[in-house]
Design a protein that fits this description.
- By secondary structure, the protein is of the alpha/beta class.
- The protein has one domain.
- It is 39% helix and 21% strand.
- The strands form 3 sheets. Strands 1, 3, 4, 8, 9, 10, 11 and 12 form an 8-stranded mixed beta sheet that branches. Strands 2-5 form a two-stranded antiparallel ribbon.
- Strand 8, helix 9 and strand 9 form a beta-alpha-beta unit.
- The relative contact order is 0.17.
- The model has no long low-confidence stretch (mean pLDDT 94).
Amino acid sequence: MLVLLPPSEGKAAPRRGKPLDLTALDFPTLTAARERVLDALVELCEGDPDVAAKTLGIGGTQLDLVALNRGLRENPTARADQVYTGVLYDALDVATLTPAARRRATRRLAVTSSLFGLVRPSDRIPAYRLSGDVTLPGLGPVAGVWRECLGEAATEALGRGLLVDLRSSAYAAFWRPAPDLQVATVRVLHEHRGQRKVVSHFNKATKGRIVRALLESGADPRTPSRLAGALRDLGWTVEEGAPGRQGVQLDVVVSEL
């Protein structure tokens, strides 16, 4: 099983640690693309900070993020599961998993990254700011860069297992799995007085809890149907949709926020 997670926009900047070593990251077939994106991002942020901020889609009061990107090659690094923060990662809380579950996380989780393509929880990375919809001067849309090479890396890591795709739409555009792969997407619906809707904050938190529960249980389903069954065994209410171009959608229905 390979679980693809979205990154967090907010990140915890490591205070100490070795500088970035792209050759030490997992998914080595992505190294050349990582170099290209890193070079373009650093070059942008070494220029006019206001232009860089506008290109990155951040406000003029966030020029510290431009400075952060400018030092990406020298800044301290930490494990990716310590750098990525936010609702999903708080709910997942890799640091408090059992040792066996943490080992599973290292093998089964990958974060989709605008800068690095894919990273494992144990990969050492610096904090950075680069959203999935950014177009970098001299490079073009970062999504286009990753569409050229992400599929090979992800498919190799997946093997014959199940892909659990939890990416948001911006990062799903980096790679569309082939129709012959076993793919499950998960949507979290809040049901209240007979009506259902997606609540962004709780959607992320629930996905984090789902991944945590799967890692702790040791479940390794090979099909969307078996994933649905595993989640039901863990106490979730799950409705399985029909197969489509993006795999099988599983709706996890919750009644409390």
